[in-house]
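so the lab meeting is tmrw and i was supposed to have these ready like two days ago... anyway. pasting both below. for each one the top line is the aa sequence and the line under it is the structure tokens. i havent really looked at them closely yet so no promises
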Amino acid sequence: MAKIFPQQVNRTRIKMEIYADCVQFGGWQAFTKTFEPIRFQEAIAAFGRGTQTQYVLDCITLAVEAHFFTTRESLKACVFASESDFNAFCDALAQYDWWLNERHAYAFAMLLDCEEFTIRSYADLAAEFREEYEKYPM
């Protein structure tokens, strides 16, 4: 009888080493398994948009995969340093017209408790994220 091997799923690799300059603004700390609130506006002021938005997505994804966020209510209190940081992040994310990579899609679908098809693009994710945040005031 032939041996059946489990399917190997290729997941998008998250390379945290490319974010060395972003760590000073908060985010997922893999060594201590903690999450420092992200000061997104400071990061944008220092480096501009682009890398910082991706950094936030990757930090949240890694924290979800590590089961750091146990409730959606705790998400808002933990991820961003202020309401204006959250809004700046959603504004930046809404400008992305790309499809979500599978790692971000699974993490955010689980975190926001929504169907995968509702967050197909990063702009969809920004809208869903804003809707979720409105339920839990800071």
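ok protien two:
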Amino acid sequence: MRKSVCFLAVLIALSWTASAALASRGAVVRENFANLGDWKPLRFDNTKKNTSYSEADEDGIACLKARSVGSSSAIVCNTEFNVYRYPLVRWKWKVSNIYAKGDIGNRKENDSPARLYVMFKYNPERAGFFTKLKYSIAKKIYGRYPPRYALCYVWANRRHRERIITSPGFGDIKYVVLEAGNGEVGRWREEEVNVLQDFKEAFGKMPPAIADISFMDDSDDTGGRSTAWLASLKVMRQVPSFRKGIAASLKDKAVGP
């Protein structure tokens, strides 16, 4: 009996160790915000004031701090990733307040205190004639191609009837409402999304393969002000369910009668 229990304990330990190693190898982005060396600002020509971004310590947690005062700009992670290999994005965030006048469904009031974008890279080899023309013009203006599509995971002012909302200004951007209203303001909230599933639901097709991530606190339309924090950002592989089943089975046998 003791040998069986010891053997199962070793198997569990090995399973947990292997799972930890797989998790370590399985994350293409693992950002703890000790510094912002892997991030770059993204500013908009039609915005007078930029949101400020800095590394911070909030509640003892190393994080990215965004402070918006009637401003709008984003910060972009330099690491691109293949969404078919790494479909899971996990993070936690907190906001100081919502914008009472903000409405992500209204182009004139399109503000929210926290947005995490997954931006899908434009591929000219797979574009039609008119799309190529539009993106060629954009590249001449901005010096690079804009994203082809974007999923915007948002902390909204209020709950909407739909979970996914088309941006009122850009049909190729879909808002996915994860948090809304005042109920969780001032508290850390943990999120995990599958961008492949969300893209398919939002656009009715599968996405371009390459993407990157940006974060934004946006208040230029309403003139509001807020602070948002982002921490523990990871972009990961999806662990096959059979591994979870094996670990659970071993655990049950070890603690069972």
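from a quick look at the 2nd one: Residues 1-24, 246-257 have pLDDT under 50 and may be disordered. The radius of gyration is 21 Å. will dig more after coffe
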